[in-house]
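Hi R.,

Here's the chain you asked about this morning:
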Amino acid sequence: MLKAFSTAATGMDAQQTMIDTIANNLANVNTNGFKRNHVNFQDLLYLKMRESDREVATGVTAPSGLEVGSGVRVASTTRIFTVGDVESTGNDLDVAIQGDGFFKVTMPDGEERYTRDGAFQKDANGLLVTASGYQISPGITVPEDATMVDIASDGTVSVQTPAGNQVIGTLEMYRFANPSGLSAEGGNLYRETEASGSAIAGKAGEGGYGSILSKYLEKSNVHMVTELVNLINAQRGYEINSRTIRTGDNILRQLSELVR
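And here is the predicted structure, written out as tokens:
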């Protein structure tokens, strides 16, 4: 069997992964705080039929060798954490991070997750929670008689009540040495891993942490035109690899006809 069959098959499989990744990026084009994924490819092992440093004559070394590749594989997917566009909502509890950083979320089982989705709400007890109902950490409780909530650029949360203005807490920011190493858990949440490093707490707007923009939401950083161009490239790559298989099939068919 021609080696081109298995080599082209790896190319088709890699391009299929590329298409799946692009499809997920496009599906989340309107997801708050979503960060697009980028696929990284690597070539596979090579069959070395002749080494490049082989001596072809006394004192003469071949300037190049003879090697045939085995195809391609998907090495990894990298999440691109560039800041997305912001959209004004007018909602007092909506916030967008302008720069580096995450909000910390406490799950029902006590585990910690991190998010850039600032579409916060109040639960029945007045606690600030995510759209899915998970508590923001550290917890902030909005009084029942609060008529207005104000979130400053440094994360300070204050409210206006009949008794006057008062500060009720601060939205802390968290950073990671390698945010691409975070594990995406769905629901706009990320989990800390060994690859990401430990979360480093800080104050919004200071020491490299992003500032907070109140009454805005950060949208997805997916650019539809870029993704559609990548989709076309992946589709053409898939077609070319399938054509390689058809070409190999034609060669084998012609060889089989020679013995008839």
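One quick note: The two ends are 19 Å apart (CA to CA).

Cheers,
M.
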